[in-house]
Amino acid sequence: MLARHGIVATSQPLAAQAGLQVLKQGGNSADAAVATAAMLGLVEPESAGIGGDMEAIYYSAKNHRLYGLNAAGWAPASATPQFYRHKGMKSVPPYGVFSVTVPGAVDGWNRFLRRFGRMSLARGAAAVHRNCQPGLRPHREDPRRLGKLRQLLR
Question: pLDDT tens digit string along 113-145?
């Protein structure tokens, strides 16, 4: 979505709309990115959401520096190499119960906003809430994406 002084690009129009609303309310790109990611968690949950991780690369025009944030979740304490070998595995599987980590997205959003944003997480989430008030209609791509997920989970 384009606005007079900003742009938000994503695969879901409602997520772009949430980010654009944040920009219109005086937020910056960090605020818009978090609102967009939070909305994606509702309208495209397989791509983003509170149960996942968060990574960001952020350029500060103010001080001409590039920053990175890795808010990937932590593995459980018992997820040691010995644990996986005992289960007959050579590495952590890409899917399933033995690949689960503690989600890092919400903590990452909060840290990102505290460092680079102008708004609180609660204020950014309000844009997501407003977009959900009338209800959410399925996106035209949902059946195709859900079919791919169904194949993956078999």
Answer: 999 999 999 988 888 888 777 776 666 666 666
CB pairs under 8 A, 24+ apart, for 85-88?
none
Nearest to 43 by CA among 74, 7, 10, 69: 10
Q: For the whole model, what pTM was predicted?
A: 0.78
Q: What is the pLDDT of residues 32-54, one digit of tens each?
A: 999 999 999 888 887 778 888 99
CA 38, CA 144: separation in Å to the nearest integer? 22
Whether 44 and 38 have beta carbons less than 8 Å apart is answered as no
C-beta separation of 19 from 32 below 8 A: yes
In this structure, the strands spanning 65-71 and 54-60 are antiparallel
Cα distances (angstroms) measured from residue 138 to each of 5, 16, 82, 135:
29, 16, 44, 10
The tens digit of pLDDT for each residue in 86-100 reads 999 999 998 888 988
Cβ–Cβ < 8 Å for 88, 46: no
HEC string for 1-35: CEECCEECCCCCHHHHHHHHHHHHCCCCHHHHHHH
